[in-house]
Fold this protein.
Amino acid sequence: MSDQDKRVAAEAAVKYVKNGMTLGLGSGSTVNWMLQCLSERINEGLQVRGIPSSKKTEKLARELGIPLVDFSTTTHIDLAIDGADEIDGALNLVKGGGGSLVREKVVDACADELIIIADSSKVVSQLGTFPLPVEVLPFGYEVTMKNIERLGGIPVLRRKDKEVFVSDNGNYILDCQFGKIEDALGLHGKLIQLVGVVETGIFAGMVEKVIVARNGQIELTERG
Ligand SMILES: O=C[C@H](O)[C@H](O)[C@H](O)COP(=O)(O)O
């Protein structure tokens, strides 16, 4: 992991932002760099507004003076910029390492274009080394865990500072090891049908561009 590369990727993504855009603001440490870059451009006169995908992003964006709106103002997002925990060669993603996957998916899915920014440690040949985050209702999460085990997963209830981690939506996160994921969309489809599952961290077929920085150099991959 390199903060320098996260910043390089973030700077490259912000070049795609144009005056007047409504932006989807993802979550995580790479997105935090993007917010810094965006705020610098806003200080230079760029006029945009953002819809944040987490309370943490909302807080930082406010501190940086980035104008924010929510879905009561508009349901249209021109461009979303977000991070990822894993990116495969088909531009499928695992997300949710920071617990923001549900709001990220709502924001990213309604954007005209989604750009993913990352340092090169996130690029994998196959998804599944990073345990798949699955957001579940707290009620009956034990049952949901059993059902995930029946699908071949090993779910672990996420904790933070020894307390159960609670998402911005008041839900729990199960970090699920499935081994190497052969069929990302198929696995998502099975999980999302389970009662109690709110959303999975598989983002398949959603990305237009991936910007990866490796030792300070940009690698741009676009959906073919
Ligand atoms: O829930 C968190 C998000 O999916 C993040 O975009 C993802 O975890 C990547 O975060 P970072 O840029 O900190 O590695």
User: Anything to note?
Assistant: The CA atoms of residues 16 and 114 lie 11 Å apart. The radius of gyration is 17 Å.
